[in-house]
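hey can u check if this looks right to u? its 239 residues, i copy pasted from the old doc so theres a chance i mangled smth
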Amino acid sequence: MGFKDRLIVALDVDDAGKARQLVEQLRGYVGMFKVGLEPFCLYGPGFVKAVQEMGGRVFLDLKFHDIPRTAAQAARAAVRMGVYMFNVHIAGGREMLKAVVEAVQEEAGSGGIPKVLGVTVLTSLGTEQLRSEIGIDRSPLDQVLFWAELARECGLSGVVASPREVSAIRARCGKDFLIVTPGIRPAGAVPDDQIRISTPAAALRAGADYLVVGRPITKATDPLQAAREIIREMEDAEE
Protein backbone atom coordinates (compact mmCIF):
# COMPACT_ATOMS: atom_id res chain seq x y z
CA MET A 1 0.00 0.00 0.00
CA GLY A 2 1.51 3.30 -1.11
CA PHE A 3 1.62 6.41 1.05
CA LYS A 4 -1.15 8.12 -0.90
CA ASP A 5 -3.39 5.11 -0.30
CA ARG A 6 -2.98 5.63 3.44
CA LEU A 7 -4.25 9.22 3.36
CA ILE A 8 -7.95 9.78 4.11
CA VAL A 9 -9.38 13.24 3.41
CA ALA A 10 -12.20 14.35 5.70
CA LEU A 11 -14.96 15.99 3.63
CA ASP A 12 -16.24 18.04 6.57
CA VAL A 13 -17.48 20.97 4.48
CA ASP A 14 -20.90 22.62 4.43
CA ASP A 15 -21.12 23.10 0.67
CA ALA A 16 -22.02 20.13 -1.55
CA GLY A 17 -20.41 21.72 -4.59
CA LYS A 18 -17.18 22.29 -2.68
CA ALA A 19 -17.24 18.69 -1.42
CA ARG A 20 -17.68 17.31 -4.92
CA GLN A 21 -14.97 19.60 -6.23
CA LEU A 22 -12.59 18.27 -3.58
CA VAL A 23 -13.32 14.69 -4.64
CA GLU A 24 -12.77 15.58 -8.30
CA GLN A 25 -9.47 17.28 -7.45
CA LEU A 26 -8.12 14.64 -5.10
CA ARG A 27 -9.35 11.30 -6.44
CA GLY A 28 -6.41 9.29 -7.63
CA TYR A 29 -4.11 11.24 -5.33
CA VAL A 30 -5.47 10.08 -1.95
CA GLY A 31 -6.70 6.73 -0.72
CA MET A 32 -10.11 7.50 0.67
CA PHE A 33 -12.66 10.15 1.61
CA LYS A 34 -14.24 10.39 5.04
CA VAL A 35 -17.94 11.22 5.05
CA GLY A 36 -18.81 12.30 8.57
CA LEU A 37 -21.84 13.61 10.38
CA GLU A 38 -21.83 17.07 8.82
CA PRO A 39 -21.94 16.10 5.12
CA PHE A 40 -24.09 13.03 5.79
CA CYS A 41 -26.75 15.08 7.59
CA LEU A 42 -26.57 17.87 5.02
CA TYR A 43 -26.63 15.78 1.85
CA GLY A 44 -27.83 12.32 2.91
CA PRO A 45 -26.77 8.82 1.79
CA GLY A 46 -26.82 9.99 -1.82
CA PHE A 47 -23.63 11.89 -1.12
CA VAL A 48 -21.84 8.63 -0.30
CA LYS A 49 -22.98 7.24 -3.65
CA ALA A 50 -21.84 10.41 -5.42
CA VAL A 51 -18.34 10.10 -3.96
CA GLN A 52 -18.20 6.45 -5.00
CA GLU A 53 -19.39 7.24 -8.53
CA MET A 54 -16.54 9.75 -8.83
CA GLY A 55 -14.11 6.96 -8.01
CA GLY A 56 -13.60 7.57 -4.30
CA ARG A 57 -13.57 4.95 -1.56
CA VAL A 58 -15.59 5.99 1.49
CA PHE A 59 -14.88 5.85 5.20
CA LEU A 60 -18.33 6.40 6.75
CA ASP A 61 -17.63 8.24 10.00
CA LEU A 62 -20.98 8.23 11.81
CA LYS A 63 -19.76 6.62 15.05
CA PHE A 64 -22.75 4.35 15.70
CA HIS A 65 -23.55 4.19 19.44
CA ASP A 66 -26.89 2.67 20.39
CA ILE A 67 -28.54 -0.47 21.69
CA PRO A 68 -27.23 -3.61 19.95
CA ARG A 69 -30.15 -4.13 17.56
CA THR A 70 -30.24 -0.52 16.39
CA ALA A 71 -26.48 -0.37 15.88
CA ALA A 72 -26.59 -3.68 13.99
CA GLN A 73 -29.31 -2.43 11.65
CA ALA A 74 -27.31 0.73 10.97
CA ALA A 75 -24.30 -1.47 10.20
CA ARG A 76 -26.36 -3.44 7.68
CA ALA A 77 -27.28 -0.18 5.97
CA ALA A 78 -23.61 0.79 5.82
CA VAL A 79 -22.79 -2.53 4.15
CA ARG A 80 -25.51 -1.94 1.56
CA MET A 81 -24.04 1.48 0.80
CA GLY A 82 -20.81 -0.24 -0.19
CA VAL A 83 -18.52 1.80 2.07
CA TYR A 84 -14.94 0.63 2.51
CA MET A 85 -14.98 1.18 6.27
CA PHE A 86 -17.21 2.61 8.99
CA ASN A 87 -16.98 3.10 12.72
CA VAL A 88 -18.81 2.55 15.99
CA HIS A 89 -18.21 3.81 19.52
CA ILE A 90 -16.54 1.11 21.58
CA ALA A 91 -18.27 2.71 24.58
CA GLY A 92 -21.45 1.04 23.30
CA GLY A 93 -20.19 -2.14 24.94
CA ARG A 94 -19.41 -5.74 24.12
CA GLU A 95 -22.90 -6.82 23.04
CA MET A 96 -23.30 -3.87 20.68
CA LEU A 97 -19.89 -4.50 19.12
CA LYS A 98 -20.55 -8.21 18.62
CA ALA A 99 -23.99 -7.47 17.15
CA VAL A 100 -22.44 -5.06 14.64
CA VAL A 101 -19.75 -7.54 13.56
CA GLU A 102 -22.31 -10.33 13.15
CA ALA A 103 -24.66 -8.08 11.16
CA VAL A 104 -21.85 -7.00 8.82
CA GLN A 105 -20.81 -10.57 8.12
CA GLU A 106 -24.39 -11.66 7.46
CA GLU A 107 -25.23 -8.68 5.25
CA ALA A 108 -22.03 -8.83 3.22
CA GLY A 109 -22.27 -12.56 2.57
CA SER A 110 -19.69 -13.51 -0.02
CA GLY A 111 -19.28 -9.90 -1.12
CA GLY A 112 -16.80 -7.34 0.13
CA ILE A 113 -16.89 -6.92 3.89
CA PRO A 114 -16.26 -3.36 5.09
CA LYS A 115 -13.74 -2.72 7.82
CA VAL A 116 -15.40 -2.01 11.16
CA LEU A 117 -13.44 0.37 13.37
CA GLY A 118 -13.98 1.19 17.01
CA VAL A 119 -13.80 4.80 18.19
CA THR A 120 -11.74 5.09 21.36
CA VAL A 121 -11.21 8.48 23.06
CA LEU A 122 -11.95 11.50 20.88
CA THR A 123 -8.89 13.56 20.00
CA SER A 124 -10.58 16.66 21.45
CA LEU A 125 -10.49 15.14 24.97
CA GLY A 126 -7.59 15.31 27.38
CA THR A 127 -7.07 13.81 30.83
CA GLU A 128 -9.03 16.47 32.70
CA GLN A 129 -12.04 16.39 30.37
CA LEU A 130 -12.08 12.60 30.50
CA ARG A 131 -12.22 12.68 34.29
CA SER A 132 -14.44 15.67 35.02
CA GLU A 133 -16.85 15.55 32.08
CA ILE A 134 -17.04 11.87 31.11
CA GLY A 135 -16.45 10.33 34.54
CA ILE A 136 -13.53 8.12 33.52
CA ASP A 137 -10.59 8.12 35.92
CA ARG A 138 -8.16 6.38 33.57
CA SER A 139 -5.72 8.41 31.52
CA PRO A 140 -6.57 8.73 27.82
CA LEU A 141 -3.85 6.17 27.02
CA ASP A 142 -5.12 3.60 29.51
CA GLN A 143 -8.72 4.06 28.38
CA VAL A 144 -7.75 3.76 24.71
CA LEU A 145 -5.87 0.52 25.38
CA PHE A 146 -8.78 -0.87 27.42
CA TRP A 147 -11.21 -0.14 24.60
CA ALA A 148 -8.83 -1.31 21.85
CA GLU A 149 -8.51 -4.71 23.51
CA LEU A 150 -12.30 -4.95 23.81
CA ALA A 151 -12.67 -4.08 20.13
CA ARG A 152 -10.18 -6.77 19.14
CA GLU A 153 -11.92 -9.36 21.33
CA CYS A 154 -15.24 -8.56 19.65
CA GLY A 155 -13.87 -9.02 16.14
CA LEU A 156 -13.53 -5.42 14.96
CA SER A 157 -10.97 -4.70 12.24
CA GLY A 158 -9.25 -2.00 14.26
CA VAL A 159 -9.70 1.32 16.01
CA VAL A 160 -9.70 5.05 15.53
CA ALA A 161 -7.26 6.61 17.97
CA SER A 162 -5.10 9.69 18.38
CA PRO A 163 -1.44 9.65 17.30
CA ARG A 164 -0.30 9.62 20.91
CA GLU A 165 -1.70 6.15 21.54
CA VAL A 166 -0.71 4.47 18.27
CA SER A 167 2.54 2.82 19.36
CA ALA A 168 0.96 1.42 22.54
CA ILE A 169 -2.01 0.02 20.60
CA ARG A 170 0.30 -1.56 18.05
CA ALA A 171 2.33 -3.21 20.81
CA ARG A 172 -0.79 -4.44 22.61
CA CYS A 173 -2.97 -5.50 19.68
CA GLY A 174 -0.49 -6.67 17.05
CA LYS A 175 0.49 -5.84 13.49
CA ASP A 176 -2.77 -6.95 11.82
CA PHE A 177 -5.02 -4.66 13.90
CA LEU A 178 -5.87 -1.54 11.87
CA ILE A 179 -5.18 1.86 13.39
CA VAL A 180 -6.79 4.89 11.77
CA THR A 181 -5.44 8.14 13.13
CA PRO A 182 -7.12 11.56 13.09
CA GLY A 183 -5.58 14.61 14.74
CA ILE A 184 -2.94 14.84 12.00
CA ARG A 185 -1.45 18.25 11.34
CA PRO A 186 1.43 19.10 8.99
CA ALA A 187 4.58 20.35 10.67
CA GLY A 188 3.99 23.91 11.88
CA ALA A 189 0.18 23.87 11.42
CA VAL A 190 -2.24 25.13 14.09
CA PRO A 191 -4.01 22.40 16.12
CA ASP A 192 -7.54 23.87 15.73
CA ASP A 193 -9.84 22.06 18.21
CA GLN A 194 -7.69 18.94 18.47
CA ILE A 195 -5.66 18.26 21.62
CA ARG A 196 -3.84 14.97 21.03
CA ILE A 197 -2.20 15.59 17.64
CA SER A 198 0.89 14.63 15.63
CA THR A 199 2.62 15.16 12.31
CA PRO A 200 2.10 12.67 9.45
CA ALA A 201 5.60 11.20 9.65
CA ALA A 202 5.48 10.75 13.43
CA ALA A 203 2.11 9.00 13.29
CA LEU A 204 3.30 6.53 10.65
CA ARG A 205 6.52 5.83 12.53
CA ALA A 206 4.41 5.03 15.59
CA GLY A 207 2.52 2.41 13.60
CA ALA A 208 -0.60 4.05 12.14
CA ASP A 209 -2.10 2.41 9.04
CA TYR A 210 -4.23 5.33 7.82
CA LEU A 211 -4.11 9.07 8.52
CA VAL A 212 -7.20 11.28 8.49
CA VAL A 213 -6.62 14.89 7.46
CA GLY A 214 -9.34 17.48 7.04
CA ARG A 215 -8.88 21.23 7.30
CA PRO A 216 -5.17 21.37 6.38
CA ILE A 217 -6.28 20.04 2.97
CA THR A 218 -9.90 21.16 2.54
CA LYS A 219 -9.26 24.74 3.70
CA ALA A 220 -6.06 25.12 1.71
CA THR A 221 -5.88 27.49 -1.25
CA ASP A 222 -4.67 24.54 -3.32
CA PRO A 223 -6.04 21.30 -1.78
CA LEU A 224 -4.16 19.05 -4.20
CA GLN A 225 -0.85 20.71 -3.41
CA ALA A 226 -1.63 20.48 0.31
CA ALA A 227 -2.33 16.76 -0.06
CA ARG A 228 0.91 16.26 -1.96
CA GLU A 229 2.85 18.05 0.78
CA ILE A 230 1.30 15.81 3.43
CA ILE A 231 2.20 12.74 1.38
CA ARG A 232 5.78 14.02 1.20
CA GLU A 233 5.76 14.32 4.99
CA MET A 234 4.42 10.75 5.19
CA GLU A 235 7.33 9.59 3.04
CA ASP A 236 9.68 11.08 5.64
CA ALA A 237 8.59 8.26 7.95
CA GLU A 238 10.91 5.95 6.02
CA GLU A 239 13.99 8.04 6.73
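The two ends are 17 Å apart (CA to CA).
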